[in-house]
Design a protein that fits this description.
By secondary structure, this protein is mainly α. It is about 70% helix and about 0% strand. Mean pLDDT is about 80; it is low at about 1-35 and about 435-469.
Length: about 475
């Protein structure tokens, strides 16, 4: 029996990369283990081993806020560091005061927002450097840039803080003729206005107006500072007058609105001038000075016509009609309201059409013209259906119901007053049927003897009972 020749087995050679090479540590590296002092180790590592320095390692370990603060202090910006630290503390205080569940409680802390910290670091340090050199205009510009950077609703407190800083710095600038001071007063007026401090806002706006008289300074949109001052004063005087009217201080409100009207004219803004005339007309009406109210409302009507302001024209017609009604001039009032309806329909102003029809319906309803009132209230309801405003629709429904009820009561009362057999049968039949007497008079089956009388009564119900205006 033959056997196969033996197979020659060769062992593979060792791969060079797998050969473990033992290298003895250098004497210098071995010395590290003999050094016990920490500072000496840090120094030795920095001098002999390439890698992160102590400062670089700390930069990775520290928070972003801490690194920003350290950088400010290293560069000698101690005032900027102090201001940044104060702002962070102020934010924390505002958050604690608002408490859990508030909007600010849900926001990130200022120290957790690197982008904002970068902005603060950049502009605060530049402002401090400019302040040391007494370049107050540069200080102002950096503070103003910070105010612009924090114009979001959640950052308004920061914006207001830097507007206050701008206001203080602007008092030190003497080389621009008061331009920066004027800007600072305008910005502080806006801050006070947003906070509801209208009297303080008015003081700032008045100073802004005085500083811009005869000046041709313009903002980035091309508007002169003086025209902006007039606009601010017109707005704040109108807001002040509204508060006075709420407190029944009619004469003081009228004086304030006259000042608003004058500012609107000086500013050269026809729209503001018209709005001032409208508010002034309503104020005179509230004070019982109807004739003066009509004069101002006519001014508003003329300006609205000049500006092709259809909405304003409708408001003028409505306000004039209201004054005429209070004077007892109902026929003239109806003419103005019908013009209001025409304007609203032509311009497809559904909301204005609702107001016009409700006003007309009110007049007819108060004077016993219930059928006519129903017509206008129905128009108001149809116009309200084209809107997405549910309260307006509900209001129109209520007016329709009131007018229909009044119209129904005319017929019911006439039958009740008659108190005869046919009338009583008629009322009883209606109570069983409960039909709408405005559009669907009684539908009942009575005896043949009374059918002729009932037909006469139905005709009577369908004819609305009217009283002279």
């Amino acid at each position: 029996m033959s056997t196969l020749p033996p197979v020659l087995i060769q062992c593979p050679k060792e791969h060079p990369s797998l050969i473990e090479q033992m290298v003895c540590p250098s004497i210098k590296l071995a010395r590290i283990h003999l050094i016990k002092d920490k500072d000496a180790i840090d120094h030795y590592l920095a001098m002999n081993i390439k890698g992160l320095s102590k400062q670089e390692a700390a930069a990775y370990r520290n928070s972003y806020k801490k690194n920003i603060c350290i950088d400010m202090l290293r560069q000698g910006y101690h005032k900027s560091f102090s201001e940044l630290f104060t702002l962070i503390q102020k934010w924390n205080a505002l958050r604690e005061a608002a408490g859990p569940g508030s909007a600010i409680w849900q926001q990130k802390s200022l120290e957790e927002q690197p982008d904002k910290l970068d902005l603060l670091h950049h502009f605060l340090t530049r402002a401090e450097a400019a302040q040391r050199a007494e370049y107050y205009e540069e200080v102002y510009n950096n503070q103003l840039n910070l105010a612009y950077c924090f114009n979001n609703p959640e950052d308004k407190w920061l914006r207001n803080y830097f507007y206050e800083q701008c206001f203080s710095t602007a008092q030190l600038i003497k080389i621009d003729g008061g331009k920066k001071e004027a800007e600072a007063h305008a910005n502080m007026g806006l801050v006070n206005e947003e906070q509801g401090q209208f009297m303080k806002a008015a003081e700032h706006y008045e100073t802004f107006h005085q500083l811009t008289l005869g000046r041709m300074w313009k903002d980035e949109t091309g508007h002169t500072y003086n025209s902006l001052a007039c606009e601010h004063l017109w707005r704040i005087y109108t807001l002040l007058a509204d508060k006075m009217l709420e407190n029944k201080e009619h004469q003081q409100a009228i004086k304030t609105l006259i000042k608003a009207f004058e500012m609107a004219k000086k500013g050269g803004n026809k729209k503001m001038e018209g709005d001032s005339a409208y508010c002034l007309g309503l104020a005179y009406h509230s004070a019982g000075e109807e004739q003066t109210a009509i004069i101002n409302l006519n001014t508003y009507k003329e300006i609205s016509t000049e500006l092709c302001d259809i909405v304003g024209l409708g408001r003028a017609y409505q306000a004039i009609a209201k004054v005429l009604v209070s004077q007892g001039k109902v026929t003239e009032a109806i003419e103005y309201l019908e013009k209001f309806v025409t304007v609203a329909k032509s311009a497809q102003l559904s909301r204005s059409l609702v107001d016009a029809c409700i006003s007309l319906g009110d007049i007819y309803n108060e004077r016993g013209y219930y059928y006519k009132a129903c017509e206008y209230f129905n128009q108001a309801f149809e116009a309200a259906n084209t809107l997405t405003d549910l309260p307006v629709m509900d209001e129109a429904k209520v007016y329709c119901g009131i007018a229909k009820a009044h119209n129904m009561m005319v017929a019911v009362n006439s039958h009740t007053d008659a108190a005869d057999h046919v009338s009583i049968e008629y009322l009883l039949a209606w109570k069983e049927n409960r039909s709408d007497m405005c559009t669907d008079p009684f539908t009942v089956e009575l005896t043949k003897d009374t059918s002729g009388v009932l037909e006469t009564n139905k005709l009577f119900l369908q004819t609305p009972v009217q009283e002279p205006l």
